[in-house]
Amino acid sequence: MEIAELVGTFVFAISGVIAVAERRLDWFGAIVIGIVTAIGGGTMRGLILGETPVFWIDDQIYLLFALIGSVAAIPLVRTFGTSHSLFENSLQLADALGLALFSIVGASITLELGFNGLIAMVCGILTGVGGGVIRDLLAGQTPLIMRGEIYATAALAGTILFVLLYDTLGTAQWIASALGMLTIFGLRMAGLKRDWSLPRLG
Question: In whole angstroms, what is the distance from residue 76 CA to residue 41 CA?
Answer without folding.
Answer: 24
